[in-house]
């Protein structure tokens, strides 16, 4: 290793004193490279609460040093401790941890004196950039659980590569690895298996580096550790442990069922090596309370606690307010709370009812309130020719702006765009809503494809048809559909669809729709006759799915001269003519405006309050 023995320094938090040490050529029993901390190095006087659990071996070493008298209260730096002898540690991270009294990435904490470069940059063949997090599977390798039998007890993580030639070095390019795999696995692996193997080998050999976080699953628990050294290739007889890296594992695993949903999604990706960097903050925060993070943040400059706290921000749907109920003319705020609770529990909801019941309007306004604004809401409308490629992703003809040539390129649809927006860092606690208008007018199985699975299993990921990406629906993405029950295509909504969505009825026979027009007229300071006419009309319609919603009579044009008659003749009667087509019903006689006005006038006359007619409840008979 170039500059192997040069000195590195570590400054304690908040402008504290500086410790010095160097990397040693010797390796520990698991292959981790040792680090020597010089006598006179300062250490924090206390440790964070989680130190003994998350970094058990470093905590034991620090405790032993104090008991042996090698780590004593410092006279030079009050409140600190000081090493009185050189101390050999199992890894750079262990060396940093005993000095800082908390989890620390030694590969980035130990830095050069002159140009402040991290130790990791002096490791040959190491992928540059910040540390990452990885999942490596080992619970079922040729039928064996290597996690319990090898990795945890011996401080290792391995990747089986039984046929890969000897002499492959860390830092190998993906092209060279592809050539090796093509030759070495020519007759023993399929094309797809070879592709996956190249990606996994490249990650394990060239991208994973000391200081990275590594996770694995075994026995229903997630085990977390830190890579503490370079990769080695070993020749094993059974071919199960050809590539290995040293790892310092945390002493306890975390129950899978209690992990954050977003972390479960990434852990469900079916590869042997998976990049978990998108959920790295969630991994780092496991087993640590917010109070401990705050204490760590106070104790450490440039601490990742802020990143963890941001990732931990809870997703919430705000509580509907009486003001919202008044704005939407909903009869009771409790109804809005129920819709909100259904969305929270199911993530998907359908508002269904006859035409004109305000389904789309209510869906948009409710989504804007719950999401915090229109920026978090996207609306699409389904139709019979709508397809998966329109909805999620597919190849579309695109013109190259420079060559003007047209070629098919993979293009994201509205759901993929909204999912990408919702899953961005900083957005994950903000609700995002996709509104699907007329959801039952498309072939749903064709439109949703493999997404049907994700609607029910939100903590899982699937391999996408076109891009091949591993995709999961973000926890903060909610779907609201609208469904017109007068459209007979509702019969195409299968049981799978019904199981994945909560269904809320908006019907002229029940609230909040039944009294909506009357509340709107009162707010507009208009006469209540249109509400009486609508009630009389719906009373004559036997099929509840074809009753007329109030929105037809909630438009300014209805209340201009001749507007009510025009709306009745051109909007409402054509719907009823279609409903009764071929039945020989006299539409005008049964549903015409004049007939209904006469009916309403007769009822008003019958229940007119005469002088002295006072009911026991204080209402007039017409209000009953």
Mind explaining what this structure looks like?
With 624 residues, the protein is α+β, with helices and mostly antiparallel strands. It contains 24 helices and 24 strands. The strands form six sheets. Strands 8, 9, 10, 11, 12, 13, 14 and 15 form an eight-stranded mixed β-sheet that branches. Strands 17-20-23-16-24 form a five-stranded parallel β-sheet, sandwiched between helices.
Indicate the proportion of strand residues: 15-25%
Broad structural category: alpha+beta
Distance between the termini: 92 Å
Q: Output the number of helix runs.
A: 24
Unreliable runs, pLDDT <50, ≥5 residues?
611-624
Proportion in helices? 25-40%
Specify the biggest β-sheet: 8 strands, mixed
Mean pLDDT: 87
Q: How many strand units?
A: 24
Radius of gyration: 34 Å
Shape: elongated
Identify the notable features of this structure and list them briefly.
624 residues, alpha+beta, eight-stranded mixed beta sheet, five-stranded parallel beta sheet, 24 helices, 24 strands, 18% strand, disordered C terminus
What is the gist of this entry?
With 624 residues, this protein is an alpha+beta fold. The radius of gyration is 34 Å and the shape is elongated.
Topology of this protein?
Layout: E1 7-11, E2 18-27, E3 33-37, E4 42-44, H1 51-54, H2 56-68, E5 71-73, E6 80-83, E7 87-89, H3 92-100, H4 106-109, E8 133-136, H5 146-154, E9 156-159, H6 174-184, H7 191-207, E10 213-218, E11 221-227, E12 232-233, E13 243-249, E14 254-255, H8 261-267, E15 273-275, H9 280-284, H10 290-299, H11 305-312, H12 322-328, H13 333-346, E16 348-353, H14 359-371, E17 377-381, H15 388-391, E18 393-399, E19 406-412, H16 414-422, E20 432-437, H17 444-448, H18 451-456, E21 462-463, E22 470-471, E23 477-484, H19 495-500, E24 502-505, H20 516-523, H21 529-539, H22 563-579, H23 587-591, H24 593-606
Parallel strand pairs: 8-10, 16-23, 16-24, 17-20, 20-23
Antiparallel strand pairs: 1-2, 2-3, 3-7, 4-6, 5-6, 8-15, 9-13, 10-11, 11-13, 11-14, 12-13, 18-19, 21-22
Helix pairs in contact: 2-3, 6-7, 10-11, 21-24
